[in-house]
Amino acid sequence: MNGKVLLLSQRRISDLVAFCLAYEFEDTLQAVTDAERIDATDFASLEFSRRAYKLVRLLSGSQRLAAQLAPVPRGATMLSGDYDLFFPVFSNAFELYSLATIPDWRRRCGKAACFITEVWTDELPEYLLELLSQFDHVFTGLQHCVDDLARITGRPCSYLPLAVDVLRFAPAVPDQPRPIDVCNIGRRSQITHRALLEDAARRNSFYYYDTVAASGSDKKQRTFRVDNAQEHRVMLATILKHSRYFIANRSHVNNPEFTAGRDEISARFYEGMAAGSIMIGEAPRTAEFARQFDWPDAVIHLPFDSPDVGSILAELDTNQERLATVRSRNVREAARRHDWLYRIRAVFDVLGLAPTEKMQQRADQLARIAS
Question: Which of 73, 153, 159, 242 makes an SS bond possible with 143, Cβ 3.0 to 4.6 Å?
Answer without folding.
Answer: 159
